[in-house]
Amino acid sequence: MLTSLLLSAGLALMGAGIGAGVVAIGAALGIGRIGGQAMEAIARQPEAAGKIQTAMLIIAALVEVVSLFAVVVCLLIALNAGNIAFN
User: Fold this and answer.
1) Quick one: 74 exposed, middle or buried, by C-beta within 10 A (0-12, 13-18, 19+)?
2) DSSP-assigned states of every residue in 25-71
3) Do the beta carbons of residue 17 and residue 81 sit within 8 Å?
4) CA angle at residue 25 from 23 to 30, to 5 degrees?
5) What is the value of pTM for the model shown?
6) Where does the pLDDT of residue 5 fall: very low under 50, low under 70, confident under 90, or very high at 90 and above?
């Protein structure tokens, strides 16, 4: 029983760590793609640079919020797994 409890807590910690890593990679790729596409759009239409840049910053902020939420969820899973293992 103790072995299975520790194993499940360990797997939860590992899953939380992997999840946080995947979230960070996904957010970095998403923001990089947003920035690259915005630069291409500005190069094609320089007169719309202000609108494109504003939209780019808003979308990048939304990506960051979603990634922060996912990392917090992973942190809560990790903390909950630690409490299960030590109770």
Assistant:
1) buried
2) HHHHHHHHHHHHHHHHHHHH-GGGHHHHHHHHHHHHHHHHHHHHHHH
3) no
4) 95
5) 0.77
6) low
